[in-house]
Design brief:
This protein is an alpha+beta fold. It contains four helices and eleven strands; from the N terminus they run βββββαβββαββαβα. It has a single domain, classed as L-amino peptidase D-ALA esterase/amidase.
């Protein structure tokens, strides 16, 4: 996993794919590909998650960056016949960013949580665990408590992404850690 940042956008890159979940509360205005995170869908892994300011154009740059490198859901037999799965959410009231530039600046210094708060809020937590889509969604739901504890009361979208490491950490512990991490990220942007 890699994290890239540019003004107005943060990107978690998982080129090999990672299990993710999402929880949406309130009336989000800017989201993309969230339905693909439903545990019942065919696509079980994402290749990036985008937290954007202002709008979703940053996700287009992330998709292009991944596709140029052949990372994505295979749709053909030849290399580069892929569709990158890149769910995204925007925190409105902030400036938009360049997703491609964020990917170019990516490093393996991955924080436990990221939070972007404007007129709406978006957050992301990374859990060191091997869990399925339903468990990832449960972690995202619990992480939302971190926004509430930090005093963030605007509509919010929270993603959870699992590293895939078989740590054996119980789900309840993952949920508690995720809420603590998002609270800290929201208080210290």
């Amino acid at each position: 996993m890699l994290v890239g940042r540019a003004p107005g956008v943060a990107v978690l890159l998982t080129p090999a794919g990672a299990v993710a979940g999402v929880d949406v509360r309130g009336a989000p205005v800017g989201t993309r590909e969230l339905d693909l995170l439903d545990p019942s869908t065919l696509v079980q892994r994402v290749h990036a998650v985008v937290l954007a300011g202002g709008g979703l154009a940053a996700a287009d740059g992330v998709v292009r960056w991944l596709a140029e490198r052949g990372h994505g859901f295979p749709v053909g037999v030849r290399p580069f016949e892929v569709v990158p799965i890149v769910p995204a959410a925007a925190a409105l009231g902030l400036a938009s960013g360049d997703g491609y530039a964020a990917c170019e600046a990516a490093s393996d210094d991955v924080p436990t949580a990221l939070a972007v708060v404007g007129d709406t809020a978006v957050g992301l937590v990374v859990v060191d665990a091997e869990v399925g889509p339903a468990e990832c969604r449960r972690v995202a739901m619990s992480a939302h408590d971190g926004f509430a504890r930090a005093g963030v009361t605007v509509p919010a979208t929270v993603f959870a992404v699992a590293t895939g490491a078989p740590t054996g950490t119980p789900l309840n512990d993952l949920c508690t850690t995720a809420a603590d991490a998002l609270e800290h990220a929201a208080q210290n942007p």
